[in-house]
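Assess this one:

_____
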Amino acid sequence: GPGQAAMYAGLQELGVANGEDLKETLTNCTEPLKAIEQFQTENGVLLPSLQSALPFLDLHGTPRLEFHQSVFDELREKLLERVSAIAMEGKVEERYKKLEDLLEKSFSLVKMPSIQPVVMCVMKHLPKVPEKKLKLVMADKDLYKACAVEVKRQIWQDNQALFGDEVSPLLKQYILEKENILFSNDISVLHNFFSLSPKTRRQGEVVQKLTQMIGKNVKLYDMVLQFLRTLFLRTRNVHYCTLRAELLMSLHDLEISEICTVDPCHKFTWCLDACIREKFVDNKRARELQGFLDGVKKGQEQVLGDLSMILCDPFAINTLALSTIRHLQDLVGQDTLPRESPDLLLLLRMLSLGQGAWDMIDSQVFKEPKMEVELITKFLPMLMSFVVDDQTFNVDQKLPSEEKGPIPYPSTIPEAFTKFLQENRIACEIGLYYILHITKQRNKNAFLRLLPALVETFSDLAFSDIFLHLLTGNLTLLGDEFALEEFCTSLFDGFFLTACSRKENVHRHVLRLLLHLHHKVAPAKLESLQKALEPTKQSGEAVKELYNQLTEKLELRKPSPAEVTETPSMELPLPTVPTPASR
């Protein structure tokens, strides 16, 4: 049948008889038995010592096929070992010459399932498989599938589209995994999006697969970076920037110097990676990072595009922003102004570079963004004054209040603060991290004071997934405040609900928060929230699913009608008898 034909494809070219030849012999002969015997003799295993042994196997009822198969498997194993050995021994040119000859002889049998592993093994060990063979492999889906990654790399490096088809589903999977973490139903301060160490993140499936696909091939590495840049430009999705850094550091872990030494971002990324691990930029590393930025030479400015993408990774931004807040608190203690702190200025410089990544890669104008003076002279001192307000208030609370009544917490915010959050990207990022900081400190007063400034922010940053993921996590620390009408009105009506209808992701984050904290919320408030958050026809599956989960939870909480009916005042309530389960 045709299946048989495929199995023995290519034997005739090598002058080896196959089933067709036997059929022909038998059709054109007078004595079939003699002809079969002769065919067996001519095409059997040519070892004199076997001639007498074969009839002995026949007596034991061992089919010749089974015998030949076992001899064949044995020989194939030996051959595979031999091929791997040839690839390691002798002079480089000689060994490859041997392998090329072997490939030339065996390639016509590549379709035979029994021989295919040997052919594939020969190709795998050849650093340069002849172009003609690669084209044949590429043209045949099954052969391409069966190829070792070493051979596929040789195919991919000259076929960007084919490589793109292989990489694309992995990139989609990567983005999905990131979004699943941001929208996860587990809300906690301890385990959030930024909890995993860089080393752990690089062990992720997608990074490992891409690392494996690239091997030591600089051309493929460059192609992947090109894909990431293009996708970042097309979608503005910052997770592509994370993958850019993770991929480089994964190759660094494996000590693939062929790639690391040619990526001009390698040492910068390595140093920044250590900061991300500590979630802080210390002075020594700050100097080192500054050295890299100052060392960008005339004519090499393009490297700024790459560095900005590395700095735009949310894990980098998170580290820079947390370090900035820590520096500001230190400055309050030292009575120093922001403009007098070189470390703080460097953090701002890197934040600007990271936040400017998209514009730089889009415009192809490679120069560091100008820092706005007012950010340093007005905005940061304003944040420091908020820190001072908190300290003053806390001291006042502790003083014996004989003459004066209790000092109220400052409730207004300077108009300039709100304006900065609307118009300046870096100010907005730092302002949001300051709000996360006070929430984590359970500072309800400061939180409610600054919250109104979040309704309108630069490019809606206060409604971005990463900020809302962190905010919902930190709000679990203020859980008890959710029983207060005033707190809920400020948080939900004053902030979340202003964007729910126009931003699906905000709707999802509010539902996540309520799924987690619904038992803390005042019942009347909960009821109105349930109405306000009901999905519309336009709502996506995720919102509907979360809303259903919330509704189910609330149903379970409702007291049954029997419990609600009041006990007539005359009847004494029956003593409760413990059921066996509750003992």
